[in-house]
Amino acid sequence: MEVGFVGLGIMGRPMALNLLKAGHRLHVWSRRRESMQAVIDAGAIACDSAAEVARGVEVSFSMVADAPDVEQVALGEQGIAAGAAPGSVFVDMSTIAPSAARSIASRLAAGGIDMLDAPVSGGEPGAIGGSLTIMVGGRPEAFARVRPLFECLGGSITLIGESGAGQVAKACNQVVTGISVAVIAEAFNFARINDVDVERVREALLGGFAASRILENHGARMLARNFKPGFKAWMHQKDLRIVLDEAHRLGIALPAAAATAQMFNAMSGSGLGEDDSVGMVKLYERLSGGVAQ
Ligand code: NAP
C-alpha cells in the first residue's frame, strides 16, 4: 500500500521502518532532514512537506509531540489536508488531548478525510519490536481499513470508541505509568536512605503484590542509572498536563495524578526534562539532600 509518515523521532523512526519491512511504499517527512535519514536509507521516499506525504497515499500517519504540532501537520498551510484526497485516512499516533483530537478530526472530516486517534504504549522497545499497544478512536470503517497497517506496528490493537476515545485510554495509561514511575523512585530513594541494598528490595518486591512491568523495566533502569530517553520526562509532564486540563474541564479530582504532575514539573524545572522519565529517581535524591549525578 502507499503509506505516508510524518515525525521520525524516537518512536516514529522504528514504526516507519516496520511499515517498510512489511513491504509498504512509504512517503516520509520530518522537520529536520537528519531525522529522516535512517528511514530514507531503508528505502522510504523523502518528501518536502506533510502535504506532499499525503498526496497519492491511502493512509498517512503522524507521530509528533503535542496538539499544536498535530494541528500544524494536519491542517497547516503545508499540512496533510492540503495534499490528501477525499476518502483517505489520517492516523495520528502522538499523545495529545482528546478534545484536540476530536477538533482536528471534525475539521478534516469537512474535507472528506477520516481521522483516527491512535496513541500507543510500549515505548521505544515496543516501537522497534512492532509490539506496541494501540488505542484507537474513530469510525469502525476507517479502523478496519487501517488495521492491517496497525498489525505491522503493534500486538494489542483496540478500537476503544468514537473520535477522541483512543486519547482517553492513553490518558488513563499515562496516569497509571506516571504515578508508578514516581512511587517506585520514591520507594527506591527510601531504601537507599535507609542504607538497604535497593537491588535486593526490587527483587523482593517483584515476588509480591507490588510487582509490575514498571518495577521490572523502569526500576532496572533506575538502578543501572540509565537515563537515556526512552520516554523523555517533559513528554510525561505534557501527558499529565493533558490529563489535568481535562479533569479541570470536567470538574473531577485526580489527586494522585496532580501530585505526580508536580514532580514532573520539578524535573523539567531542574534540568532533567530531556532525561528519560526514570530520571525521577534523581529528583527524589535531590529532595532528600543527596546530590544526584
Ligand atoms: P521525539 O523523539 O521528540 O520525536 C518527535 C518527532 O516529531 C521528531 O522527529 C520531530 O521532528 C517531529 N515533530 C515535532 N513537532 C513537529 C512539528 N510541529 N512538525 C513536524 N514535525 C514535528 O518524540 P517521541 O518520543 O518519538 O514521541 C512522539 C509522540 O509519541 C509523543 O506524543 C509522545 O508523547 C508519544 N509517545 C512516546 C513514547 C516514548 O516512549 N518515547 C511512548 C508512547 C508515546 P524533528 O526531528 O525534525 O525535530
Automatic annotation (TrEMBL):
Superkingdom in the source lineage: Bacteria
GO biological process per UniProt: organic acid catabolic process
Protein keywords: NAD, Oxidoreductase
Coiled coil: none
Family: Belongs to the HIBADH-related family.
Gene Ontology terms, MF aspect: NAD binding; NADP binding; oxidoreductase activity
Natural source organism: Candidatus Methylophosphatis roskildensis
Protein name: NAD(P)-dependent oxidoreductase
Start and end residues of each 3-hydroxyisobutyrate dehydrogenase-like NAD-binding domain: 164-284
Domain called 6-phosphogluconate dehydrogenase NADP-binding: residue spans: 2-161
Hydrolase recorded as keyword: no
Active-site annotation: 170
